[in-house]
Specification:
Layout (H helix, E strand, L loop, with lengths): L4 H12 L5 H16 L13 H11 L3 E2 L11 H12 L14 H15 L9 E5 H13 L5 E6 L5 H7 L3 E6 L1 E2 L8 E2 L3 E2 L2 H6 L5 E7 L11 H13 L3 E5 L25 E6 H4 L7 E5 L2 H12 L7 H16 L7 H21 L4 E4 L5 E5 L1 H6 L11 H13 L1 E2 L1 E2 L15 E5 L4 H18 L2
Parallel strand pairs: 1-14, 3-4, 3-8, 6-12, 8-9, 9-10
Antiparallel strand pairs: 2-11, 5-7, 10-11, 12-13, 13-16, 15-16
Helix pairs in contact: 4-12, 5-12, 6-7, 6-11, 13-16
Bound molecules: pyridoxal-5'-phosphate.
Catalytic activity: L-kynurenine + 2-oxoglutarate = kynurenate + L-glutamate + H2O; an S-substituted L-cysteine + H2O = a thiol + pyruvate + NH4(+)
Protein name: Kynurenine--oxoglutarate transaminase 1 isoform X2
Cofactor: pyridoxal 5'-phosphate
Length: 458
């Protein structure tokens, strides 16, 4: 009917000026807007704001040293890069679909590698599911297990997607906070000082509790849950017949001789635990987006139902690269040449360098026992400069990070975003830095901090 855009617009102008069928145009526009109003599914209500976008944009705009987002800016190990090259240049069939629940060599090596660590023989077909990153694993787990009205206990501070994933599945998040205990004067704070109150945790379990989300080592705090703490969580999960979704993506990143313990390895926990991992975090290749879930078949079969009706299949070549990387790593596991020994050693040095550097301007570190991240206490700044620009109800840490990006050229992430709305005000005096960065990035950070220190001199 219309040959070009100009003809269409002339027609519409005509219609809008009421020259023709004015009522039908109004009706048409009304229908369009009514449709637009109905577009968003109810389960997405309130979930559209994503704070990360704003801080990333500001970091770019002010050309800040970006210690916000959690990814290494150095290369993955050579053996992993070679494995990736083999995957894209070798067997042509790696360009095609593979098994829906995981490329067989990958599910096989994951089963044997983690079977030993969990003290449980794993069947590659029924106890392993390969997903699009740990994000995909989490989403699949929530969709598979959480029903309308189910309660999900989330330990704060928490990796921020747990809450929307619970809500999107129709569940109700129930929060319980790790709380810091005071340190002695001059003593450096540690993530191990942040603990759960056993009575408070127990009080969160109700007949509606379906799952508890555990994240050890924790993002953003870096806390590594101790055997005693895990035993407490395990006994409550067993007592109340609750599934534990255990996010262990940073399991190799533990420092100071600290031990990572998988809760699934505790007596009686294999049957009720989904253990989630990430090749991105494991091999410093976050763009690969290969993750996995390990668990008992009676739970995994529901995750497979979600997977086969959503993603269905993850890229074959990246799965092949991860399989070969694990095969290589298995040969030297536990030895000094192992990447799982070398990476945490190097990152402990980066952590300590960052901690010293931040302290020079009064950003007081809470030394993490594990993970990519270090949080610092900014209470000193909060009392000295309480009136930073920003909305009156905006938590202090968010205003501080914006101020720091703009004025000091350093980007971090406010920690209050890792807390539920009602607890954000109580935890608005911490900010998170990622130290899994190249030496040059950490040096650039130090230069900014030394300049800041000079400015502080009276
Ligand atoms: C605790 C935690 N779980 C899961 C993920 C997601 O991992 P992936 O990149 O494999 O999807 C992250 C990423 O930052 C994380 O910090």
């Amino acid at each position: 009917m219309f040959r070009n855009a100009a003809a269409i617009s002339l027609h519409l102008v005509g219609l809008l000026q009421g020259k023709k069928a004015g009522a039908s145009v109004t009706r048409h526009l009304h229908q369009t807007f009514t449709m637009a109003k109905q577009m968003q599914a109810r389960r997405l209500k309130g979930l559209d704001y994503n704070p990360w976008v704003e801080y990333a944009r500001l970091a770019t705009e002010y050309d800040a040293v970006n210690l916000g987002q959690g990814f290494p800016d150095f290369a993955p190990p050579d053996f992993a890069l070679e494995a990736f090259q083999h995957a894209v240049s070798g067997d042509l069939m790696l360009n095609q679909y593979t098994k829906a629940f995981g490329y067989p060599p990958l599910t096989k090596i994951l089963a044997s590698f983690f079977g030993k660590l969990l003290g449980h023989e794993l069947d590659p077909l029924t106890n392993v599911l390969v997903t699009v990153g740990a994000y995909g694993a989490l989403f699949t787990a929530f969709q598979a297990l959480v029903d309308e009205g189910d309660e999900v206990i989330i330990i704060e501070p928490f990796f921020d997607c747990y809450e929307p994933m619970t809500l999107m599945a129709g569940g109700r998040p129930v929060f319980v906070s790790l709380k810091p205990s005071p340190t002695r004067d001059g003593e450096l704070n540690s993530s191990s000082n942040w603990r759960l109150d056993p009575d408070e945790l127990a009080s969160k379990f109700t007949p509606h509790t379906k799952a508890l989300v555990l994240n050890t080592p924790n993002n953003p705090l870096g806390k590594v849950f101790s055997q005693t703490e895990l035993e407490l969580v395990a006994s409550l999960c067993q007592q109340h017949n609750v599934v534990c979704i255990s996010d262990e993506v940073y399991q190799w990143l533990v420092f100071d001789g600290c031990q990572h313990i998988s809760i699934a390895s505790l007596p009686g926990m294999w049957e009720r635990t989904l253990t989630i991992g990430s090749a991105g975090k494991t091999f410093s290749a976050t763009g690969w987006k290969v993750g996995w879930v390990l668990g008992p078949d009676h739970l995994m079969k529901h995750l497979r139902t979600v997977h086969q009706n959503s993603i269905y299949h993850c890229p074959t070549q990246t799965q092949a690269a991860v399989a070969e990387s694990f095969e290589k790593e298995q040969l030297c596991f536990g030895q000094p040449s192992s990447y799982f020994v070398q990476l945490p050693r190097a990152m402990q040095r980066s952590r300590d360098y960052m901690a010293r550097s931040l302290q020079s301007v009064g950003l007081m570190p809470v030394l993490p026992q594990g993970s990519y991240f270090l949080i610092t206490d900014i209470s000193g700044f909060k009392s000295k400069m309480p009136d930073l620009p920003g909305a009156a109800n905006e938590p202090y840490d968010r205003r501080f990070v914006k101020w720091m990006i703009k004025n000091k050229g350093l980007a971090a992430i406010p920690v209050s975003i890792f807390f539920s709305l009602s607890h954000q005000k109580d935890f608005d005096h911490y900010i998170r830095f990622c130290f899994v960065k190249d030496e040059s990035t950490l040096k650039a950070m130090d230069e900014k901090l030394q300049k800041w220190k000079e400015e502080l001199r009276p």
